Amino acid sequence: MTDSTKRIIEELLRIPKGAVSCYRDVAFRAGVPNGARQVVWVLHTMTLKYNLPWWRVVRVDGKIALSGDGKVEQIRLLRNDGVGVSDDGVVLLFIKKRGISE
Fold this sequence. Notes:
Order of helices and strands: HEHHEHH
CATH topology: Arc Repressor Mutant, subunit A
Shape: globular
Distance between the termini: 38 Å
Helix content: 40-55%
Structural class: mainly alpha
Number of domains: 1
Strand order of the largest sheet: 1-2
CATH architecture: Orthogonal Bundle
CATH class: Mainly Alpha
Number of helices: 5
Low-confidence stretches: 98-102
Number of strands: 2
Radius of gyration: 13 Å
Mean pLDDT: 91
């Protein structure tokens, strides 16, 4: 495992219940500029092994990147965490914090 992968895992595990982050910001905090795709790869390949909170990571615009059953499950898990999410998968507090319009 590379050092950057380890740092990404550490950053993912730091996202607390009730909070969300975006792929880009996780990568940035892990010291991997332009590493959003690497964050996606880590989530895709290592979530089960490291018990990563994949549902707490969304796109930079506050929208859930998944579709179908994955999107439905992510909405459910975020709501269980106390995060406001619209039925179409927009994290409400995330976009308000960033000043992004829906």
